[in-house]
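input
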Amino acid sequence: MKKKIILISIMAFIAIIWMIFIYKMSNLSSNSSNGKSTGIIGALIEDTLDVTNEYGITNSHPTESKLDKVSTLLNAPLRKVVHATVYFVLAFFMMIILNILFEHKRYYLSVILALSLAVCFATGDEYHQTFVPGRTGQILDVVIDTAGAMAAIAFYSTYQLMYCIGYKKAKKEENI
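output
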């Protein structure tokens, strides 16, 4: 029982820290947020080109303006991927917490609660963005966040199913 409480506490702490991270990132102004993500994309492209050039995979040396253009072009779709990934992580931690809390006995309830909590947080976060200068709350972002959460639940469910099948198979072989 004590291990269960400790594990739930650790996972809850991580999930709360993750939600604070999401909130802090959403609190950045539009210019700051876009500038940071475009800068990160540009640095990744440059680093990738440096490595591939060094190993002879490519021989590409684009100008700064071309790098800026590519970074700007990739910014919007990659930001949506990050949206989904952030909520994937959040839903994954929620599934762990809920499954431990319910002792793996109310799996469907864990799925419904994890998804509901992720969607509610995503909706609240988008609403919060309407108060941040230059930012808007977008329903599409909530849909993308929900897709990320659903992917996490599907991933966790696959793991859980494989674990249960393996556990039952091991028990069956043990009884033979």
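quick obs: The mean pLDDT is 90.
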